[in-house]
Amino acid sequence: MSRVLIVDDEDGIRDILRDILQDEQYTVFSAADGIEGLDVLRHHPIDVVLLDVWLPRMGGIDVLKEIKANYTDTEVVIISGHGNIDLAVKAVKLGAFDFLEKPLSLEKVLTVVKNALQIETLKKENRRLRNSMVHEDEILGETPPMQKVRTLIGQSAGSDSRILILGDNGTGKELVAREIHRKSRRAAGPFVEVNCAAIPDALIESELFGHEKGAFTGAVSRRKGKFELADGGTLFLDEIADMSLSAQAKVLRAVQEMTFERIGGEDSITVDVRVIAATNKDIQAEIKAGRFREDLFFRLNVIPIQMPALRERAADLPLLLAYFMEKFRPSADVPVKRFADDAMAFLTEFSWPGNVRELKNFAERINIMSDEEVVSLETVRYYLGEVTGDSGYEPSGIDEFLDMGLSEARENFERRFLVRKLAENENNISRTAQDMGIYPSNLHAKIKKYGIEIER
């Protein structure tokens, strides 16, 4: 149900507007002044505000400015008296959707509210379309493990149950989360992703719950957190097992009650969010070691989805490889490269430690670097790092390091390791840092130290 807030100091107008809007099946909130109205906005997501220009304690124009600064998706309709038309026009220039002149025409009130809600619906649809375009890859695979994943997606998407996606790096956990959101009743709402491993402990609470102006050094303005931004949609907590125990405690409360406070704030904020979490760690081992709260695990693990490693569904590899080779071919005029039989056999038997992400990177690399229309086994081995070459992928044995001192050997290995990890993660610094378990700033320093060039 759409939610409308009436802010007017006249009891009679609030009562009449509440009655006609409730008759139209809107959820209605009301406030007698601007400060009270802003307090309602802090606690409840509101779609449209009917706002009087003249209000005690805080004028309507100032309230409008506050709403536009902090609740950008909320439409505001100004209510003005005969002498306030100039103010109403000013309000529209400041971002108000429209204005209504007193005495109010109830028919016009309903029309303007309906039009404002249609604009809000278009905004949500635009967000949904943006979400659907963020990740172009599809969930592919016909093996039993992937059929089970698809079944779980179909069974769980229509509910609001919390989901925990487990699996190694590169198996497609984010793809599954987005697919669940796309098929849910929340598809028109936002899909908000938080990479818990990439955010320092000191910032994770601000990232999740937001902060008030002046809450800490550098907090120059109010900021909404991810829980608040995901209201009406889905919040994807990726790599949640990397979150500190103190942050886990606050997430537990937010997941249980769907209420929280911004850092430095006293008001409780209520949201309507579906939570999907994911981790590449052995969550039971993390609980046993005291690094993950068991009560949070039970809250998140309503529907578990286990993503299989690529080596566990090797029969899907030809299908996936065909998809990526088509995706990365240089142009429609260039034939899709295919693989010699012995090359395909080798690829099928390869262990793929980086899973589907590594396969995707390999397909892109072959399309860029190889001139062969039928890719040979030798070329495949070369670009998978099976032989020494200039590609940056070296043998994994230690023989070549034995003539070096410890410091030199360590630096040589670290440089090659970094090159390999960057290639597996498409030179994405945040993702590579997460994969390696270090901060992005540390990774930047190492890239600079070793003179590694990042291709964009």
Describe this structure in words.
- This protein has helices spanning 11-23, 34-43, 60-70, 85-93, 106-134, 144-157, 173-182, 201-209, 226-229, 245-257, 283-288, 294-300, 317-328, 341-349, 355-369, 377-383, 406-424, 429-436, 440-450, and strands at residues 3-7, 27-31, 48-52, 75-80, 98-101, 163-166, 191-195, 210-211, 223-224, 234-238, 259-260, 269-270, 274-279, 303-306, 338-339, 374-375.
- The chain folds into 3 domains: 3-130, 3-Layer(aba) Sandwich (Rossmann fold), CATH 3.40.50.2300; 141-306, Rossmann fold; 312-450, Helicase, Ruva Protein, domain 3, CATH 1.10.8.
- It is elongated and about 85 Å long.
- The protein is α/β, with parallel strands linked by helices.
- The protein is built from 19 helices and 16 strands.
- Strands 2-1-3-4-5 form a 5-stranded parallel beta sheet, with helices on both faces.
- Helix 1 (11-23) links the parallel strand 1 and strand 2 (27-31).
Provide a compact summary of the structure.
The protein is of the alpha/beta class and 456 residues long.
Label this structure with key terms.
Helicase, Ruva Protein, domain 3, 3 domains, five-stranded parallel β-sheet, alpha/beta, Rossmann fold, elongated, single chain, 13% strand, 456 residues
